[in-house]
Design goal:
With 427 residues, the chain is mainly α. Helix content is 71%, strand content 1%. Among the domains are: 15-95, 434 Repressor (Amino-terminal Domain); 135-228, no CATH class. The chain has a two-stranded antiparallel sheet with strand order 1-2. It starts with 14 loop residues before the first helix and ends with a helix. This is HTH cro/C1-type domain-containing protein.
């Protein structure tokens, strides 16, 4: 008879998540647990020890595990196995991070180059069928081309894509101005112009060119209305709402409300989810908790609704994870960390580092939520990760968010990890 074997890791959590769960179940901060452990053993526990255990920066030794066993009523053997698992995971994470850092920039470069090369095969001017005549199939071809351009935004910042997007917009606009086509084809062309203007506006915004972004968004709004496309019109207004929030124009809620109200009865559920998502953000950043909660509920319901037709390509990135991210960001802005943290952590677990800009941005709200929860050193560690991901990006937004977090952490500069991060931020 073959002997049965068991996996020592079965049913075991790594020590960091295990300790965090046990501590938070009792409603204690890291500092409070450190104080309780100090009282139990009769002399002070090293400041920040709990944070380092939970982040696996340092693993509890046998004496510390005995103390934790008595504090939480957990068998010492379970804690030993949790430490063993954490040590193995830490070694694997270090190896994976090294491999990923060696690979990530090559992957970004490859995707950017390959996409641009594919797009370069067809120029808008080559789509004229005879003289200045534009065939009915041209809007579809331009839509496919624009979709490929749009995917670049997943991996690179606006500083890298802006000129490419502007050239594309100029080419399509020239085609529409100089060509001869049917009324239906004209509406299709104006819809493509609206999409491309939104892309150019987004890239300008991402690179910090707010006036340029405003001009492109106004072009998108006019083109979408000329195309009689209410979904594109709503998206144009939602972009303007986000810009208003950034520059402090005070019209964000008005634009976001108008965006949602612009939608027709046959709008794809994914578009309704996107615009409700954007409305929730405007309410959250204005401190309107109940309104934000309602809009998030609308978005969550819509994203799980089955539509008769597929959504537009410009909303391809909107899924359940996007709604979860926005939910976490909204609750972080409203200083409700217990609602923000689970939503952000669950969705971020599926974000690859090649999406460095978005991952850095969303981690900054996770850091903010942990700081609101009193987890200062964990917040600091996440903020340091934001700095790591922000390096070399052609986007101003992640580093701007990192500096917001640095300012919030300044009152805690006496803690060694915070002090080190503040010194790094000076560079």
């Amino acid at each position: 008879m073959a002997m049965m074997t068991t996996n020592e890791d079965d049913g075991v959590e790594p020590i960091g998540p295990l300790l965090r769960r046990l501590r938070m179940a009792g409603g204690r901060t890291q500092e409070e647990l450190a104080a309780d452990l100090s009282a139990r053993r009769g002399y002070p526990l090293e400041q920040g020890a709990v944070s380092r255990w939970e982040t696996h920066e340092r693993l509890p030794d046998p004496a510390s595990r005995a103390l934790l066993s008595a504090e939480f009523g957990v068998p010492k053997e379970e804690l030993r196995r949790a430490v063993t698992l954490a040590r193995r995971l830490r070694r694997q994470e270090q190896k994976d991070q090294t491999d990923q850092e060696n690979d990530v920039f090559d992957r970004r470069g490859f995707m950017t180059a390959s996409t641009a090369a594919g797009i370069a095969l067809i120029q808008p001017s080559s789509l004229l069928s005879s003289g200045r005549r534009i065939g009915a199939d041209v809007p579809r071809q331009l839509s496919q081309r624009t979709a490929r351009l749009r995917r670049l935004d997943d991996f690179v910042g606006g500083g890298d894509t802006y000129r490419m997007y502007v050239r594309e917009l100029e080419g399509t606009t020239r085609l529409a101005d100089e060509g001869v086509y049917s009324e239906a084809t004209g509406r299709g062309l104006r819809g493509i112009i609206a999409e491309q203007a939104q892309l150019a506006g987004w890239a300008a915004y991402d690179a910090g060119n707010y006036e340029g972004a405003r001009g492109h968004y106004m072009t998108a709004l006019a083109a979408s209305r000329a195309a009689e496309n209410t979904a594109l019109e709503g998206n144009s207004l939602a972009f303007m709402a986000y810009l208003e929030w950034t520059v402090g124009g005070g019209s964000g809620i008005r634009f976001a409300t108008a965006a949602y109200e612009a939608l027709g009865s046959g709008t794809a559920p994914v578009v309704r989810a996107l615009l409700a998502d954007r409305l929730a953000w405007q309410h959250a950043t204005s401190g309107n908790g109940p309104e934000a909660d309602y809009a998030l509920g609308v978005a969550a319901e819509a994203i799980h609704e089955h539509g008769d037709e597929p959504g537009p390509d410009w909303a391809y990135w909107v899924d359940a994870d996007e709604i979860a991210i926005m939910t976490g960001r909204c609750w972080a802005e409203l200083h409700r960390p217990l609602r923000a943290i689970p939503a952000l952590e669950d969705a971020l677990a599926r974000y690859d580092d090649t999406r460095a800009r978005d991952k850095a941005l969303y981690l900054s709200w996770l850091a903010s939520a942990y700081l609101d929860a009193g987890e200062i050193e964990h917040s600091t560690a996440i903020t340091a990760r934001v700095f790591d991901l922000s390096e070399g990006l052609a986007s101003i937004r992640p580093m701007a968010r990192a500096r917001v977090m640095v300012k919030r952490l300044e009152p805690h500069r006496s803690l060694a990890p915070v002090g080190a991060l503040l010194e790094r931020a000076k560079g």
